[in-house]
Amino acid sequence: MAQVSASLVDVDRLETWTRYRKGLCNDCAANCCTMPVEVRLPDLVRLKWVDAFEAEHEPPKQIAKRLDKAGLIEHFNFRNSIFTLARRSSGDCGLLDPVTRRCTVYEQRPDTCRKHPQVGPRPGYCPYGARARAG
After folding, report:
1. Are 25 and 131 in contact (CB under 8 A)?
2. pLDDT tens track for 82-120
3. Where are the domains of the chain?
4. How far lies 35's CA from each of 6, 31, 51, 59, 116, in Å?
């Protein structure tokens, strides 16, 4: 199966986004998964990157240092304790399968992803782009 390009829509130009409707994700190239994903400690616990004891007793700054060293995050906002997940050089979320364009941790995905597109830069819209067909 050929790798799919996610550059079908300019995610930074909200006017190019499509009103979300049920089923739209079925043939989408997952352009939303090229946007930065901000998460909090409960998301990291759900992903099993941090255990509940560590989340309760370890300073977030120390957790951020460990996750950064492991290549799992690319930024930590100390003031708000928000972690930004690492992305590949392509801009894709590190949790996105580059071939199928599907989330590899869908059941454990962060709240940011669970709430998209109801919450985000343009609520009710998404950067839909049809997935290229192999062939």
Report:
1. no
2. 999 999 999 999 999 999 999 999 999 999 999 999 988
3. 37-124
4. 11, 8, 26, 27, 11
